[in-house]
């Protein structure tokens, strides 16, 4: 009995000793949560067409949105730091050439967490010949990353891959509504032109455009991997099998609210969480 009492006393002492340590650990984690986050990118990050007809719906953004139906990175991180401030620096229609300016915005905002999703508009152009070259894409992305490294040396950066736009074609080609929208609004002609064609020339074109997206994603992943404070999604967004039900019914191209929620889930899980 005496031995048992001594053992219980010792166990209680050990548990009590751990309580302050756990409290300090939790406090430390909260202190490390970002205080300011910024998102860089294009219409996807602006939540375009996710809540209104041809409108930016920043509240539905996978990165900085405030809508609980999306549960963005911002809302997930705000649970650890209720004072978190979020800036959506993305611009609808942006290409990688616009990343330098957006990076400067993030620097001016003193962001300590930055998300980047860019490249869809560099591949989705009026024709295959007008796509951004891989060399130019890399040079411009490196410039933006250097701006962040110089201006925000301690910030955590997350880079998402570009969705597989050929998958979008596969999901929507059988829908007359999708085909009508793609044609009426001239959406991503490099990939979506002649959506029902089975001609070898069209099949080859789609494969080449998809390969350009793959090449862009390789650049994003490689450049991010060169920096200790950068994490990428390992191809998670590119590999995700988006369905027609996750796309806006106004253009059958941009993610709707459900699609934005998927983007948040897939990308946040890949962060690690960075900090």
TrEMBL record:
Signal peptide as annotated in the record: 1-30
InterPro entries associated with the record: GDSL, PLB1, SGNH_hydro_sf
Keywords, comma-separated and alphabetical: Signal
Keyword Nucleus part of the UniProt annotation: no
GO MF term (any one): phospholipase activity
SUPFAM superfamilies: SGNH hydrolase
Domain of life of the native organism: Bacteria
The protein's name in its UniProt record: Lysophospholipase L1-like esterase
Source organism: Streptosporangium sandarakinum
Lineage, top ranks: Bacteria, Bacillati, Actinomycetota, Actinomycetes, Streptosporangiales
């Amino acid at each position: 009995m005496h031995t048992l009492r001594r053992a219980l006393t010792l166990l209680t002492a050990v548990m009590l000793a751990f309580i302050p340590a756990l409290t300090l650990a939790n406090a430390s984690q909260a202190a490390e949560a970002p205080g300011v986050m910024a998102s860089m990118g294009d219409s996807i990050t602006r939540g375009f067409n996710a809540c209104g007809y041809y409108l930016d719906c920043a509240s539905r953004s996978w990165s900085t949105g405030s809508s609980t139906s999306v549960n963005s990175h911002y809302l997930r991180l705000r649970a650890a730091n209720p004072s978190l401030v979020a800036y959506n620096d993305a611009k609808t229609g942006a290409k990688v050439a616009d990343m330098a300016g957006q990076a400067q915005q993030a620097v001016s905002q003193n962001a300590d967490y930055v998300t980047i999703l860019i490249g869809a508009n560099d591949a989705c152009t009026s024709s295959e010949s007008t796509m951004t070259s891989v060399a130019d894409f890399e040079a411009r992305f490196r410039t933006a990353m250097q701006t962040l490294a110089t201006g925000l040396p301690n910030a955590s950066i997350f880079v998402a891959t570009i969705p597989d736009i050929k998958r979008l074609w596969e999901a929507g080609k059988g829908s007359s509504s999708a085909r009508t929208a793609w044609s009426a609004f001239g959406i991503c002609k490099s990939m979506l032109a002649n959506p029902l064609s089975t001609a070898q020339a069209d099949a080859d074109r789609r494969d080449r455009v998809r390969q350009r997206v793959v090449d862009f994603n390789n650049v994003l992943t490689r450049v991010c991997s060169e920096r200790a404070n950068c994490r990428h999604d390992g191809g998670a967004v590119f590999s995700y099998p988006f369905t027609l039900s996750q796309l806006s019914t106004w253009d059958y191209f941009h993610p709707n609210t459900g699609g934005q929620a998927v983007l948040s889930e897939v990308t946040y899980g890949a962060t690690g969480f960075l900090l």
